[in-house]
Amino acid sequence: MSMIKLKHSVQKGNFFLEVDTEIPxxxxxxxxxxxxxGKTMLLRCIAGLEPSTSKVSKPVHKRRVGYVFQxxxxxxxxxxKQNIEFGRRRNPEATVSMDDVVGLLEIGxxxxxxxxxLSGGEAQRVSIARVLCQSPRLILMDExxxxxxxxxxxxxxxxxxxxxxxxxxxxxxxxxxxxxICRLSDHLLVLDSGKVVAEGGLQDTLSRTDLPQLxxxxxxxxxxxxxSRYDDEFDLTLFGFSGGELWAPGRYDSSSVRLRISASDxxxxxxxxxxxxxxxxLAATIEATTSESAATELVRLRLGDDILLARITRRSLQQxxxxxxxxxxxxxxxxxxxx
Amino acid sequence: MxxxxxxxxxxxxxxxxxxxxxxxxxxxxWWLSQTRSRWQPVVQAIVAMPIVLPPTVLGFYLLVVxxxxxxxxxxxxxxxxxxxxxxxxxxxxxxxxxxxxxxxQPMQNAFESLPRKNIEAAWTLGASKLDAFLSVAxxxxxxxxxxxxxxxxxxxxxxxxxxxxxGGNIPGETRVVSIAIYDHVETLNYAAAHRLSLVLMLxxxxxxFGMFLIxxxxxxx
Lengths: 339, 221
Known about the structure:
Number of domains of chain B: 1
CATH architecture of the largest domain in chain A: 3-Layer(aba) Sandwich
Radius of gyration of chain B: 20 Å
Distance between the termini of chain A: 27 Å
Largest interface: A-B, 25 and 21 residues
Number of strands of chain B: 0
Helix content of chain B: over 70%
CATH superfamily of the largest domain in chain A: P-loop containing nucleotide triphosphate hydrolases
Structural class of chain A: alpha+beta
Strand content of chain A: 35-45%
Number of helices of chain A: 8
Number of strands of chain A: 17
CATH class of the largest domain in chain A: Alpha Beta
Oligomer: heterodimer
Strand order of the largest sheet of chain A: 4-5-6-3-7-8
CATH architecture of chain B: Orthogonal Bundle
């Protein structure tokens, strides 16, 4: 697989960005970190908008690196269609079909409209279409959902899922929202104070318990699950994965879905609970335990080929005498399982 | 009988000056709005100077520079065989300098209010710096351009001191409307002075009113 080399160092005031790494040349690489960790600065360096010591000296407009900003940044004097054609007209080698892109993002009805009539979600979809139509070699997305409220966000997320599934162009997706990162990315880069503190496949990186950035409410794991049936009486979907079966609320349109399970949504017991409200009880093996705070422990569980993280109190760990290698039952509330 | 000669000459002068100022002023305004150079305030101050300088001071220096022995005037005589002072061409140069801030500042304000990321988006979409300026920054700054056009035209039409110093009072060549009015008053021909003054008053009101009306429409959108 081809790789994309990222080597940038830049100083701004007393902030240093120092990145020297490689990311896969396909799929979505999530860049996660708190605000001020240098995520946006990294993207700006890659696009050429920020002077860095990178060996690439091509001017911005010749790089063919698409940039999706937090705000859509559409041009107010042009119609939706003219906005989409803007980048395409400037790239004689554009190969992406505009009809395909318009179909993918379902913006056909918007084309003749003026951009002032678009909702926030529609505008962001148009800006993504505009970037796709320029046939970029790489797309950078800088928190494309963070300027949208919850409802508008759900107007755009399914289209990012589609983009992910189609995998037309490698994407670097920056966010401080772990849910978005888990849902969309295949590879993960964790930034802290301008440095890469962790990188690797999404599942491997998420299952690490040594990173402060991936503790607290960010701790959790994902499993790639296959839909086995939908129960329409209770509106629940049953999924299968390497570690067993999982019920999740709602209905899903695709057969394979990536499910996210937060560490705090899993409890452990020595014996399977009976007549409990918890639908998902799965046999697991303890692989490691890490003290997270004075009160809590993160427990890494192996289920088949998958890893889950559970947060329990240190007191429970002691009372149950849990140790590495022990067989336990992981109880996961169905209502918390989501994509 | 209305004396149309000076009015027509003033209109020609204002038109030529405005065209030159928009073409020349837009890049200056763009540079002033975008640069982080430490020379920016220096250039900014030089551009703004005609606002505060007495027109006689400006006119005096222009007379020196544009005169047959001055740096620009001498060169002009060698190339064209004509003197620059007391000629229409000299008036155009003087007017351009005199009205420069009235063209640059509205355009600069418009450029400064553009979101920087909008321009960056154009660059990442494959537009060169010049292309992004022409196809994004300029069309999004229409209001600034309208103000710049109206103000430079009207301001050039109303100039007096600089013209008197550099252009004198040659009918059909440098006798613009403000000079003609002055002349009429000096010769106590108040009726003629009234007629020309009234035309200028009406013109000033109508253009400014029109400009503010357009601006208000755009704001409402």
